[in-house]
């Protein structure tokens, strides 16, 4: 099965309840975010949701060298579509792994893919000028958290 068909199948299999049938407002995620905790500089950038597509990028720089990067996207199908909103990540430029939106509210969104090894759950939350991403397995036995502060240029 092609990657495109796998993503569409996943979106339909994980299609959320009618409560998620409305278009999620994830505009709170857009912007430039930076963390300088523990030495390396980690940055995450998100576009707005124009056209139902948010594009994201992450990079980590340590000792003046890029040591990691990731391309991300969140796609929300047009209103009335039966497909779920999906978050797709490509760490290091690898093929995309997608996660279906399973819950959202103002300042928080949770995506899941129980068939992926790790992570299986990705949660973004915003509290004021602080953005946090939490990745975990489905039982929260393995949990990693990343945080960034808003960059105001």
List key phrases describing it.
153 residues, mainly beta, Lipocalin, 10-stranded antiparallel β-barrel, 1 helix
Task: Annotate the secondary structure layout.
Layout: H1 3-13, E1 31-35, E2 41-46, E3 53-62, E4 65-75, E5 86-91, E6 97-105, E7 108-112, E8 121-127, E9 130-136, E10 143-150
Antiparallel strand pairs: 1-2, 1-10, 2-3, 3-4, 4-5, 5-6, 6-7, 7-8, 8-9, 9-10
Any overview of this molecule?
The protein has one domain: Calycin beta-barrel core domain (Lipocalin). The chain is mostly beta strands and 153 residues long. A hairpin with an 8-residue loop joins strand 7 (108-112) and strand 8 (121-127). The protein is built from one helix and ten strands; from the N terminus they run H-E-E-E-E-E-E-E-E-E-E. The longest helix has 11 residues, at 3-13. It is globular and about 50 Å long. It is 7% helix and 48% strand. The protein has one helix at residues 3-13; strands at 31-35, 41-46, 53-62, 65-75, 86-91, 97-105, 108-112, 121-127, 130-136, 143-150. Strands 1-2-3-4-5-6-7-8-9-10 form a ten-stranded antiparallel beta barrel.
């Amino acid at each position: 099965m092609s990657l495109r068909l796998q993503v569409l199948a996943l979106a339909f299999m994980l299609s959320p309840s009618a409560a998620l049938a409305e278009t999620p407002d994830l505009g709170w995620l857009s912007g430039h975010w930076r963390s300088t905790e523990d030495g390396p500089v980690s940055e995450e950038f998100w576009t707005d949701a124009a056209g139902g597509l948010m594009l994201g990028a992450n990079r980590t720089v340590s000792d003046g060298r890029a040591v990691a990067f990731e391309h991300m996207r969140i796609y929300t199908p047009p209103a009335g579509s039966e497909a779920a909103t999906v978050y797709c990540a490509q760490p290091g430029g690898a093929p995309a792994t997608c996660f279906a939106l399973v819950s959202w509210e103002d300042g928080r969104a949770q995506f899941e893919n129980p068939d992926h090894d790790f992570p299986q759950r990705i949660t973004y939350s915003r509290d004021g000028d602080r953005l946090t991403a939490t990745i975990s397995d489905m039982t929260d036995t393995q949990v990693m958290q990343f945080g960034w502060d808003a960059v105001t240029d």
